[in-house]
Amino acid sequence: MLYAKYPDGLCCHYFEEYFGTTKSMVISPSEGIIDLCWGGRAENGWHAYDITKPLGNSMQDAQINLEKAAPFGGRIQEASLTDLKIIDIAIEYGFDSSEAFSRAFKAIYKVSPQIYRRNRLDTFISSKERLDTGLLNHLARNVTVHPRIVELPEIKVAGIGGETTLRDNCLRELWARTNSLYRQIPNRIPNARAFGICEACAENTLYTMNEDILFTEVAGTEVTSFEGLTEPFVPKVIPGGRYAVFTHRGTLRMLPQTFDYIWGTWFLATKEELDWREDFELYDERFLGYDHPDSEVNLYIPVR
């Protein structure tokens, strides 16, 4: 089944636009072993990796099968980032009108071709790093690749808001300021959890985000009420509902790689539908410091 071509099996040999089966894996959690075959081809052989130990740095040669995809494939994404007119792209890929093309494009990328082109969403949604042993080790040891789905009640948070971009990340400085003023927040819950909330608005959502768009993050702590709360603190309510929960382990320097996995892999494959609430990080007693190798942070993604 791992070698058979989709839909008869799980293998896809379309690599022309960097999409396809890079590896097949059989995971044994009880033994802590991943058996991996590169390229979905038997002649590449199987290689065992012990996930309880560092993988180290190594390179392996592998053979892959190259095939062309159906016309409505990765090239349509590439074409949408050129200066071609939308109607010309639509005709090239067999659509009768630009409206029909735009509907099909939006069904996949959740946004119109015009917004996708303007914001260069290929740098955010569906972007993937080149797979190497370091990234593989991170995914195997530091990320829960299959999230838990939980139902949360409403949570009140008081903290400090700050603006940043994905490219020039200022969140560490925001947390430093919040921590320095923490004791001035009224109605704190003893040993309260801390939250980093990425604020969303109609004009600035996941589907219109790129590395240079300015967004607001609130760094704060859980409170029983907002009574007596004054500047520089802001009140924030995390709505109750369903969330997909990922756990990030280790240094927060690797947090961007975890989010790359969530939005570049899980998001594109999941059957869960995103909700228009805000995603956030939760820091509790498991958080041991920014660079601590055993530290844990939970990442909450809202789903319907």
Q: What features would you describe in this structure?
A:
The radius of gyration is 22 Å and the shape is globular. Mean pLDDT is 76; it is low at 14-18 and 68-75. The two termini are 32 Å apart. The protein has 304 residues and is α+β, with helices and mostly antiparallel strands. A hairpin with a 4-residue loop joins strand 1 (23-28) and strand 2 (33-38). It contains seven helices and eleven strands. Helix 2 packs across helix 3 (98-109). The protein has helices at 74-79, 86-92, 98-109, 113-119, 133-142, 171-181, 255-269, and strands spanning 23-28, 33-38, 47-50, 148-152, 155-164, 194-198, 215-222, 234-238, 241-249, 280-283, 296-303.
Number of helices: 7
Biggest β-sheet: strands ordered side by side in the sheet: 4-9-11-10-6-7-5-8
Report the major sheet. Answer: 8 strands, antiparallel
Can you tell me the overall shape?
globular
